[in-house]
Design goal:
The complex is a heterodimer of chains A (252) and B (399).
Chain A: E1 3-8, H1 17-25, E2 43-47, E3 50-54, H2 63-67, E4 73-75, E5 81-83, H3 93-97, E6 104-105, E7 114-115, H4 121-125, H5 131-135, E8 141-145, H6 146-159, E9 179-182, H7 202-209, H8 212-251
Chain B: H1 11-33, H2 35-38, H3 49-61, H4 64-74, H5 81-105, H6 114-117, H7 124-151, H8 154-162, H9 164-184, H10 202-229, H11 235-263, H12 274-295, H13 297-300, H14 303-333, H15 341-364, H16 386-389
Helix pairs in contact in B: 1-15, 3-5, 3-14, 3-15, 4-5, 4-9, 5-7, 5-15, 7-8, 7-9, 9-10, 10-11, 10-14, 11-12, 11-14, 12-14
The chains are: A alpha+beta (252), B mainly alpha (399).
Chain lengths: 252, 399
């Protein structure tokens, strides 16, 4: 069953407990950070008097997984998008392609890795919930089954129409994600991309890449055929001109 | 005691040495301190000059080889044979430099072969990686007769000429895939790439513009070789390349116009934004100027005019690729990126190394002067009028 997170920004008090618990669970050094980085898989940010979080959205059809030339990303059954560092060649296409600009890089290291939230995959496998959800004192971040979280989000919007805008961020964005946000202000104010298609983004690449086999087969056949026809014609032309020449010489 | 250097010190040699020195320092910093210390890349701007110029542009500039190889061997346009060798040399060097650029840019160059064993067919970059590997190999084989000729190895040369046609066809297919897949790289970021450049037809536009850039490179390097060594191609062959370039550029302009029309982006044409300026610069220099120049018969038939049109095309091409891979992504990234001196130094060092090796090869290998073409498909020589094949060589005294 696919898991996920529901982040209700109206309940967030900006205490940073989630960010610090994340650091501890993942063995990341340093204190509270302002932006996602190789040592901060999630951060709590403030816009006016609203607090919100940044973290991997765990897309249903992740761009990072689709663009990785070595298949270093995996969307697990549990919903987590995880990363196999031993495969990674460091091309950083995942960072370029991510619609939410989430993956970060260990720029200072000589053998760098891509870093991002992996939905506490190891804890998930042990039957635990994510460190951030466990640490949240107000219930702003809750962990659960993806579908149940969506139902809960819809319920909250229906029951308190004045408190929320009618938008669950992550329900449809880029084909849907496993992390959902509720808010009292438009998500564009948080800098969340507002222009994402509802269809999954990897489909855009596949529309082009799926044509490759036919280009190889028909292109090859066309080129070889063209070569063969012209070559044969030239051979014949040469043969005829030689014949004509020899006839001409016989006459002499 | 009389001490003499084995070479003359000239201005350009000093410049070259300085560039290489700077490149070497940058390379050392890159591999000892990492990407963060050597580049201005960041989490918000993960691709910069090395991807945009060294890789994305370098591949495009090498597109002349498959175009001319297809013309000569598949379509039997034998009059282009004299430009085949310099073009293949350009592409071979271009691809080798692209590989060096990639090795510098990726975070784990020691794993560069990983795509071979753990490929992901949904990744445009996997297609790019495969094409780089295989087409470089094909280019090596297409280039090898030149080496064999120089070394006097007639055996291997006969072998390789026997498979020329399949090899060329493979090269054309790999290039078609490669040039277009570089455009496919950006298909997945419709919300990040600025509206002028993001379109579903990026692969097609990349393919067509690469052919234009490849043709322009042929004219460009023929001109430089003439000035440096006095090698001269028959002017009418170059004028023909100019005509091909014109046709390809017009096709490109039509595709662009059709794309803009289809997406209705006309309203963005005059917005006061950085992208508007860059876009107009790219279109005016890279498409409109060379189309006008090449449409004039007198310009097409003059070496200077052709050269000007080629330089315009190449500049516009570079602007286009850099706009798509860097500047067109800046607004959405929210950061300002300008390459560090080390990024610039390594890029300049790569380009100058390319020029240097090309010059060395032109001097020591049978690139511009060689006896006659290898007959098509390894069959006995068919025999074409000598004057078509021959390269007019005269010393220009400027060498």
């Amino acid at each position: 069953m696919a898991k996920g997170l529901l982040i209700d920004t109206t309940k967030c008090i900006g205490c940073q407990a989630c960010a610090l618990a994340c650091k501890e669970a993942n063995g990341l050094p340093g204190e509270q950070e302002e932006e996602l980085s190789a040592t901060a898989y999630t951060v709590v940010k403030q816009k006016g008097d609203v607090y919100y979080r940044r973290l991997c959205m765990h897309c249903n059809d992740p761009s990072c997984k689709s663009v990785c030339p070595v298949g270093a990303f995996e969307k697990t059954q549990e919903g987590a998008v995880i990363y196999h560092a031993n495969k990674c060649i460091g091309c950083r296409y995942c960072m370029q392609a991510c619609p939410f600009s989430v993956p970060t890089y260990e720029w200072k290291k000589r053998a760098p890795k891509v870093r991002k939230c992996i939905l506490c995959y190891e804890r998930l496998k042990e039957g635990k919930i994510t460190a951030c959800a466990e640490a949240c004192p107000t219930g702003a971040t809750t962990f659960g089954d993806r579908e149940e979280l969506l139902a809960e989000a819809r319920k909250r919007i229906q029951e308190n129409p004045g408190q929320y805008i009618d938008h669950i961020y992550g329900e449809k964005e880029a084909g849907g994600t496993s992390v959902f946000f509720l808010s009292s202000v438009p998500f564009a104010e948080f800098g969340f991309p507002a222009n994402l298609p509802e269809d999954s983004l990897p489909k855009l690449t596949w529309a082009a890449l799926k044509k490759v086999p036919s280009i190889v087969i028909f292109g090859g056949a066309f080129l070889y055929g063209t070569w063969w026809i012209i070559d044969r014609r030239m051979e014949l032309a040469e043969y005829k001109s030689k014949q004509r020449e020899s006839k001409f010489q016989e006459k002499k | 005691m009389d001490f003499k250097l084995p070479f003359k010190i000239t201005f350009w040699k000093v410049v070259l040495l300085l560039i290489w020195l700077a490149g070497l320092v940058a390379l050392i910093v890159r591999f000892t301190q990492g990407l963060g210390a050597s580049t201005h890349l960041s989490d918000k701007f993960p691709w910069g000059l090395w991807i945009g110029f060294d890789v994305v542009s370098g591949v495009g500039l090498s597109a002349g080889a498959f175009t001319i190889a297809a013309a000569v061997y598949v379509f039997h346009v034998k009059r282009f044979y004299p430009i085949l060798r310099p073009t293949i040399l350009t592409a071979f060097l271009g691809y080798l430099l692209v590989i060096v650029g990639l090795l510098v840019d990726v975070g784990r160059p020691d794993r560069i072969y990983n795509p071979l064993f753990m490929g992901n067919i949904h990744s445009a970059l996997f297609e790019v990686a495969m094409c780089v590997m295989f087409y470089t190999t094909v280019l090596f084989f297409e280039f090898s007769p030149i080496l064999f000729e120089r070394l006097g190895w007639s055996g291997p040369k006969r072998w390789i000429t026997r498979v020329t046609v399949p090899l060329v066809i493979l090269g054309v297919i790999l290039s078609t895939m490669h040039q277009s897949s570089l455009g496919s790289l950006f298909l997945i970021i419709p919300q990040k790439l600025y509206t002028f450049w993001y379109t579903a037809s990026l692969p097609l536009l990349f393919y067509v513009s690469a052919i234009a850039a490849g043709c322009a490179m042929i004219i460009f390097e023929s001109h430089l070789s003439f000035r440096a060594f006095g090698h001269r191609l028959k002017a009418d062959v170059l004028a023909d390349i100019g005509r091909v370039l014109l046709v390809v550029l017009v096709l490109y302009a039509l595709l662009k116009a059709y794309d803009f029309y289809g997406r209705g982006v006309w309203s963005a044409f005059f917005l006061p934004r950085m992208e508007t300026w860059l876009f107009w610069l790219e279109i005016l220099i890279g498409v409109i100027a060379p189309i006008i120049l090449l449409s004039i018969r007198k310009v097409r038939l003059s070496t200077g005019g052709l050269y000007a049109a080629a330089v315009c095309t190449i500049t516009g091409f570079l602007l286009n690729r850099l706009n798509i891979s860097t500047t067109g992504l800046m607004a959405s990234s929210g950061v300002h990126y300008f390459p560090s001196w080390m990024e610039l130094a390594i890029t300049l060092a790569l380009v100058s190394t390319g020029f240097f090796i090309f010059a060395m090869a032109a001097r020591y290998l049978p690139i511009f002067e060689h006896p006659h073409e290898p007959s098509h498909a390894g069959k006995p020589e068919v025999g074409f009028p000598e004057e078509v094949l021959e390269i007019e060589t005269f010393s220009a005294g400027s060498g």
